[in-house]
Amino acid sequence: MTQPAYRRADLTIDQQHALLTAARTLAAEFDGTFGAETIDRFLHTSYDQFAGRATVANFLPLMAERFARQRLRALARVEGKDHSGTPIVLFLCVHNAGRSQMALGFFTHLAGDRAIGWSGGSEPGERINPSAIEAMRERGIDITGEYPKPWTHEIAQAADVIVTMGCGDACPVFPGKRYEDWALADPAGQSVDAVRPIRDEIERRVRALLDELGVPAAAGNT
C-alpha cells in the first residue's frame, strides 16, 4: 500500500502519525472492498469535518478514524458491497448533541447487532448536552463515547430509515427513503428534570420503530 501524504502544515507530527496509523487500520478492515486512495480521501475529509470546531485537538485523529469508518461502511452499502441486510437507521437533529444522541443510545442499546444506528446534525455542536448524558446515565446507557458529527450523502443514502428531529429543510431528502419526523422538544440548555420526559418519549418511539422493523429489543434492557 502506498503511504498517504499526511505532511500538511496544519498537522503536528503526532497527528500525522496517528492518521497514518488510522489509514493502515482502515485499509486492513476494508481490504478487498476499497483501495488506499478512497480510504485516504475519506479519512482526510473526515478529519477536516472536525478540525475547525474540535475542542480537544488530540482526539481529532481518533474522531476522524471513527467517522471515516462509518462513512466507508455506508459507501459499501450504497455500492452494493455489503450484503448483510442489517437495517440501518439514521437519527438527525440540528446539533447532534441531544435528541439524536439519546435516540442513538437507546437504539444501539436495545437493538444490539441486529440493527445499525447512526446519528448526525445539520449544524453539529461542540459537545453532547450534559443533561442528555445524565438523563441517559439514569437509564444505564453511557453516551459519553459519542460526539456531534455531520451527516454525509453516503450515510443518508445507506440508511433504510431516516428519523428527523427539528432540522427541517436542512435534513437530507432522498427519493424512496422511509422518513419519520419526531416532534420533540429541544433539550438544549435544559435541566435534567426537563430532559427526562423527552428521553422517555424518545425511548418509546425507538421501541416502536424497532418493533416495526421486526428487530426484537434485547431482553432485560431498560
TrEMBL record:
Domain called Phosphotyrosine protein phosphatase I: residue spans: 87-212
Keywords from the UniProt entry: Arsenical resistance
Entry-linked InterPro entries: Phosphatase-like_N, Ptyr_pPase, Ptyr_pPase_sf
Gene Ontology biological-process entries: response to arsenic-containing substance
Protein origin, superkingdom: Bacteria
Hydrolase in keyword set: no
SUPFAM superfamilies noted in UniProt: Phosphotyrosine protein phosphatases I (SSF52788)
PANTHER family: ARSENATE REDUCTASE (PTHR43428:SF1)
UniProt-recorded name of the protein: Protein-tyrosine-phosphatase
Species of provenance: Nonomuraea solani
